[in-house]
Amino acid sequence: IQFIGSTNAAAGGTVLDRQLDTRVFDIDGTGHILISDLTLINSKIGVRIRQSTNCTLERVGVRATPQFAVDHVAFDISQSTGVTFRACQVYGITNASSAAIRLSIAQNARILNSVLWSNTVAVEIGNSSVTISNTSFGIFGDSSVAYSADNNSEIKGDYNNYYRYGGGYVASILRPLVPGALNVPVIFDTVQ
After folding, report:
1. Of 51, 55, 102, the residue nearest 82 (C-alpha)
2. CA–CA separation, 143 and 163 (whole Å)
3. Which positions ≥6 away from 45 have C-beta within 8 Å?
4. If phi over 0 gives left and psi between -120 and 50 gives alpha, with beta otherwise, what is residue 123?
């Protein structure tokens, strides 16, 4: 199944406005879905993919909606395998407990040739594996981070660009101090 918007950017392309509703797309228990050439605005979650396989998002942009104070997520992926983001753009998601892309129990995700700019957390990773390549991150302010991951996640990065300003961090890894204790972040300024 394919959801394809207009490729005529000069005329504004295709914009889906949810008028402050919950989600634009909710994909659950399916596979091989393509969403492309769309701009999503005014939704708490742009695209939610759950228990699905091999879904692709191409040239999908999400703009921030300041009305949502918490838990604003452009792309929320859970219990899914093989989700690919290609040439996607997310910017301005700066509210508390928000993320541009949230991966939870998501395996073999790929973020390719994308722009994640001025988000509190660009990619939040929990019990997941992700490859990120040729992607640009804009990390602004001391509470912003490109990657926030837990101890059970794997991040493979290649040819990414990180623009840090005002104390932003490249990565924050949650690790327990002792078994059963609260998680404490370990923060990294750079990657090697």
Report:
1. 55
2. 15
3. 22, 23, 24, 72, 73, 74, 76
4. beta
Q: Which of 141, 149, 87, 156 is nearest to 116 (CA)?
A: 87
Cα R_g (the chain), whole angstroms? 16
Give the three-state DSSP class for 146.
strand
User: Model pTM?
Assistant: 0.90
Kindly compute the dihedral angle of the four CA atoms of residues 47, 49, 50, 54, in this order, to the nearest 10 degrees. 180
Can you tell me the distance from the alpha carbon of 134 to that of 185, in angstroms, rounded to the nearest whole number? 26
Half-sphere exposure of 24 (CA within 13 A, CB side): 26
Non-local CB neighbours of 156 within 8 Å, separated by 6+ positions: 129, 130, 131, 132
Partnered with residue 177 across adjacent β-strands are: none
Q: How many Cα atoms within 13 Å fall on the side-chain side of residue 29?
A: 0
Name the pLDDT band for 57 (thresholds 50, 70, 90).
very high
Other C-beta atoms closer than 10 Å to the C-beta of 11 total 8
Distance CA 147, CA 125 (A): 7
Q: Mean pLDDT across the stretch 178-190?
A: 54
pLDDT at res. 82: 98
For residue 97, the model assigns a pLDDT of 75
Whole-number Å distance between alpha carbons of 174 and 162: 21
